[in-house]
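Hello again, I could really use a second opinion on something today. I've been puzzling over a protein and I'd love to understand its fold better. I'm sending you its amino acid sequence along with the backbone structure tokens. It would help a lot if you went through both lines with me. I've dropped the whole record in just underneath, so have a look.
***
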Amino acid sequence: MEKKTRTATTDRCYRYAFEGTSTTPPVNGTGDCVDVR
């Protein structure tokens, strides 16, 4: 299982890109915003 995390520089949102496994299809997230403090 491999998950790559990319931090956006313009805002505090994280963009997740999941390549997928034999049972899980690949997912390209549009961005999950979280509070970074």
User: Anything to note?
Assistant: The first strand starts at residue 3 and ends at 7.
